[in-house]
Specification:
This protein folds into two domains: about 100 residues, Urease, subunit C, domain 1 (Roll), CATH 2.30.40.10; about 300 residues, Alpha-Beta Barrel (TIM Barrel), CATH 3.20.20. Helix content is about 35%, strand content about 20%. The protein is globular. Bound molecules: zinc ion (ZN). Zinc ion (ZN) binds next to loops.
Length: about 400
């Protein structure tokens, strides 16, 4: 199969005008321009006025919460969390959230997202996503104060061992956060990730109250949470977020840290040295009213920053391109469009531990692709794509067409 488009964006190289991507089975065989295409041979699918790039990657989401879309207005994080917990506890949770996973996966594909890093509380995600042709890291979540397993490392190990991985499905590990999982259990969870050579992620440095709690203020978290934490003997470790992280992740491969909204001086250097990826969720960040995210400082210090959507319980959609448009339009002095696109391709792939397989257009990589319309007189495809965030005209996963919009 040869796909031809007005522009091809390999991400790891300059844009190619009148570009082509030759796909052989599941993989990319060749990336070049029409001018270098050998004559004759395979039929060419001409996508016309379109920009063809690697399928987009959402590095942090909770698809099971898709069923709560539109139920919340912008709110402080702790108020939102409490209301979300109440909504989730209503009768029929499993069926409702299974449908959420399914709907969320298809909404992602329809937005040109070919790969998700998805977190599920009760391992619902992999069971539903297994039959949906989207690439996924299904993170199994350890939450010590939960009513359902996994609540400790042994239950986590059992849940991870149950995951039926395949070419599109990788099991991942996620201790929820340092205020809901004791340090020793976070350490044990990451040790399981290291032993099984699987990606890990966690929510870290998300709120001011979390920071104060970690440093020693047991009363920093809201009352409803304090009672729960007391029940499972969860106490402040008396460490800064970065000290605790280094202690928990010692000897373990780099992982993905969702949010890291409240970085302290010196944190960026230590994150960069460890090679962790920070996943910034721009619209969810605004939803919760946090002060400006330190992504610029992190990037300037050499930290890989990826972009995710979090869930639609705190966001408008699962379209990562809309996150980039938001950054491009709403943030002061945003990165240039090419750097923004890296956050949902190469850097997001690294966050999920899939950077050798996907995230750029290079021979040998898997043919996860997305094509978006561009103006007929397009001159700056990356900027046009980021500023318009259109719906895709074509989406392929491992060389297989999944969404075919207006392809002639
Ligand atoms: Zn999250």
């Amino acid at each position: 199969m040869i796909l031809k488009a007005a522009w091809v964006l390999p991400i790891v190289g300059p844009p190619i005008r009148d570009g082509v991507v030759r796909v052989d089975g599941q993989r990319i065989a060749e990336v070049g321009s029409v001018a270098t295409l050998p004559p004759g041979g395979e039929a060419v699918t001409d996508l016309g006025a379109a920009v063809l790039l690697p399928g987009l990657i959402n590095a942090h989401t909770h698809l099971e919460l898709t069923c709560y879309a539109g139920r919340f207005g912008p709110a402080p994080f702790w108020d939102w969390l409490r209301r979300l917990a109440a909504l989730r506890a209503a009768r029929g949770q499993v069926e409702r959230e299974q449908q959420g996973v399914c709907d969320g996966a298809w909404q992602s594909l329809q937005a040109g997202v070919t790969c998700v890093g998805d977190i599920s509380r009760r391992s619902l995600n992999w069971q539903v996503l297994k039959s949906i042709p989207i690439r996924k890291v299904c993170y199994i979540e350890l939450l010590s104060l939960a009513d359902d397993p996994p609540r400790d490392p042994a239950e986590l190990r059992a849940a991870v061992e149950e995951v039926e991985e395949d070419e599109l499905l990788t099991a991942g590990i996620t201790p929820h956060a340092p205020y809901t999982v004791p340090a020793a259990q976070i350490q044990a969870a990451l040790a399981i990730a290291a032993e099984r050579k699987r990606p890990w992620c966690t929510h870290w440095a998300e709120t001011r109250e979390e920071r104060a709690f970690l440093l020693g203020d047991d009363r920093a978290l809201p009352g409803y949470l304090r009672d729960l934490l007391a029940q499972c003997q969860l106490r402040s470790p008396g460490l800064s977020a970065i000290d605790l992280l280094e202690r928990c992740a010692e000897g373990v491969h780099a992982g993905a840290l969702a949010h890291f909204n409240y970085a302290q001086p010196g944190d960026a250097e230590r994150l960069a040295a460890a090679g962790h990826t920070v996943v910034y969720c721009p619209r969810a960040h605004r939803f919760f009213g946090h002060p400006p995210h330190p992504y610029r400082e992190l990037m300037n210090t050499g930290v890989a920053v990826a972009v995710g959507t979090d869930s639609v319980a705190s966001n408008d959609s699962l379209a990562v391109l809309e996150e980039l448009r938001f950054m491009h339009r709403e943030l002061p002095d945003p990165p240039r469009a090419e750097a923004l696109l890296e956050m949902v391709t190469t850097r997001a792939a690294r966050a999920l531990g899939l950077h050798e397989q996907v995230g750029s257009l290079e021979p040998g990589k898997l043919a996860d692709l997305a094509a978006f319309p561009c103006p007929p007189d397009s001159v700056d495809p990356a900027s046009e794509l980021v500023s318009r965030a259109p719906a895709p005209v074509g989406v392929w996963v491992a060389g297989r067409p999944i969404i075919a919009g207006d392809i002639p």
